[in-house]
């Protein structure tokens, strides 16, 4: 989120997007407060699969356990709204299109699009560092 802040300050007329997983969003979410306070309209999209998927992938294969990896879906869109930004919840393709179009009209405040996604195995075999 810090790099997005710098990018937007250097290029104020460009759209700057943060692409987060739900885990990284949980760690960096309060930067939305910084964006609001300093009127820096960064946009963010969260791929929310309600899991520490990067950890779970290796933990499950090595230790045969998913303990502490599965989470509830967090309403990061509500947090963005509470901090003074604009939040959207996306659960379908139609809602995604609407959220993207409406986010383009928010030029003076940060936007967060919370996309509820399913779990996949697309990164099986990759190495986590």
Major beta sheet, specifics?
4 strands, parallel
What portion of the residues fall into strands of 2 or more residues?
15-25%
Q: Provide the spatial order of strands within the biggest beta sheet.
A: 1-2-4-3
- Global geometry: elongated
Low-pLDDT residue intervals, each spanning 5 or more residues: none
Number of strands: 4
Distance between the amino and carboxyl termini: 20 Å
**Roughly what is the average pLDDT, rounded to an integer?**
88
Radius of gyration: 16 Å
Detailed description of the structure:
The chain is of the alpha/beta class and 129 residues long. Helices cover 40% and strands 17% of the residues. It contains 6 helices and 4 strands; from the N terminus they run H-E-H-H-E-H-H-E-H-E. It has helices at residues 2-10, 22-28, 31-37, 53-63, 76-82, 93-103, and strands at residues 17-21, 43-48, 86-90, 111-116. A 4-stranded parallel β-sheet has the order 1-2-4-3. Strand 3, helix 6 and strand 4 form a beta-alpha-beta unit. The protein is elongated, with a radius of gyration of 16 Å.
Q: What brief labels describe this structure?
A:
alpha/beta; single chain; 129 residues
In short:
This protein is of the alpha/beta class.
Question: What does the secondary structure layout of this molecule look like, with pairings?
Answer:
Elements: H1 2-10, E1 17-21, H2 22-28, H3 31-37, E2 43-48, H4 53-63, H5 76-82, E3 86-90, H6 93-103, E4 111-116
Parallel strand pairs: 1-2, 2-4, 3-4
């Amino acid at each position: 989120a810090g790099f997005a802040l710098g990018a937007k300050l250097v290029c104020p007329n460009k759209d700057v997007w943060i692409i987060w997983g739900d885990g990284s969003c949980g760690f960096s979410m309060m930067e939305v407060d910084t964006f609001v306070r300093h009127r820096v309209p960064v946009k963010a999209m969260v791929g929310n699969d309600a899991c520490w998927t990067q950890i779970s992938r290796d933990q499950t294969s090595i230790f045969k356990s998913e303990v502490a990896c599965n989470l509830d879906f967090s309403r990061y869109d509500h947090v963005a709204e509470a901090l003074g930004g604009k939040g959207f919840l996306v659960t379908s393709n139609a809602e995604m299109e609407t959220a993207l179009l409406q986010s383009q009209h928010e030029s003076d405040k940060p936007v967060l699009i919370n996309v509820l996604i399913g779990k996949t195995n697309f990164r099986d075999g990759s190495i986590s560092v």
